[in-house]
UniProtKB/TrEMBL annotation:
PANTHER family (alphabetical): BIS(5'-NUCLEOSYL)-TETRAPHOSPHATASE, SYMMETRICAL, SLR1885 PROTEIN
Species whose genome carries this gene: Aerococcus mictus
Keyword Nucleotide-binding assigned: yes
InterPro entries on file: Diverse_Catalytic_Enzymes, HD/PDEase_dom, HD_domain, YqeK
Protein name (database record): bis(5'-nucleosyl)-tetraphosphatase (symmetrical)
Annotated catalysed reactions: P(1),P(4)-bis(5'-adenosyl) tetraphosphate + H2O = 2 ADP + 2 H(+)
């Protein structure tokens, strides 16, 4: 499927060919292939739910662009709006999303806020969810290469409802960190609280 994907320049200056080349040059083979699978999964979900497949695909493709970058690279983007000095205390697992989004603007001419924040928030989730953010959040978790306890449950829920699957993954993220005895980035807790409060009001 990925061989047939082409993006217009409505959201980003670079072509998909440019993006693929940059990913290959900056990521390991396994990480690169993961990005392709997330791109494909995000597009499939978007098409299933009649959402914007191009936004989903671009965000999915670029979500881990900074996954293998150094802390020194992160610090070169300290001038970007929204840069949080606390990122360094929580490791690459937290800051690779924001850094990938900032690099997408800087290197590829990304000029769409919905794609930007879908990349930026793909690990923590978002207080103000967009459709694209939900799609990438889930695609990263359940792409075909993923194999861990709970992933099939996420896939099954996604067949029924995007929001059911998002609810599941938000809770699984926190459960995983608690079980491993790891600190929780404050925004991850804020995302959970906002989601639960919104869910409670709608029930």
């Amino acid at each position: 499927m990925t061989k047939e994907i082409n993006y217009s320049h409505k959201y980003i200056v670079a072509s998909r060919e440019d993006l693929i080349k940059a990913l290959k040059n900056n990521l390991s083979k396994d990480r690169f292939e993961h990005c392709l699978r997330v791109e494909s999964t995000a597009i499939e979900l978007a098409q299933k739910y009649q959402l914007n497949w191009e936004r989903a695909g671009i965000a999915g493709l670029l979500h881990d662009y900074a996954k293998e970058d150094s802390l020194e690279t992160l610090k070169t983007y300290a001038h970007f709006p929204g840069f949080d000095e606390e990122w360094v205390n929580y490791g690459n697992a937290i800051w690779h999303g924001p850094l990938a989004a900032m690099k997408a603007v800087d290197e590829f001419g990304l000029h769409d806020l919905e794609i930007y924040y879908a990349i930026y928030k793909h690990t923590t989730g978002s207080i103000d969810w967009t459709d694209t953010a939900k799609l990438v959040f889930l695609a990263d978790y359940m792409e075909p290469g993923r194999d861990f306890p709970g992933v099939d449950q996420a896939r099954n829920l996604t067949e029924k409802s995007i929001d059911l699957a998002v609810d599941y993954k938000i809770k699984q993220n926190l459960k995983h960190l608690i079980e491993k005895g790891q600190s929780i980035y404050p925004e991850s807790l804020a995302v959970y609280n906002a989601w639960i409060n919104k869910k409670g009001k709608s029930e």
